[in-house]
Amino acid sequence: MDLIALRRRVARTPLAPVAAFPVRFAAVARHDARVVGRSARWLAGSREHTNFTYDLTPRNLEHLAWWLSGITGEPVQQSRAYIAEVLHDDELREHVRTATADSSRRGLADRTVRFGRRVGWYALVRSLRPERVVETGTDKGLGSVVLAAALLRNGAGRLTTIDVNEESGYLVTGRYGTVVDRVVGDSVTEIGRLDGGVDVFLHDSLHTFEYETAEFAAVEPLLRPGAVVLSDNAHDSDALSTWAEATGRAFSFFDERPAGHWYPGDGIGAAWRPADSA
Question: What pLDDT score was predicted for residue 276?
Answer without folding.
Answer: 59
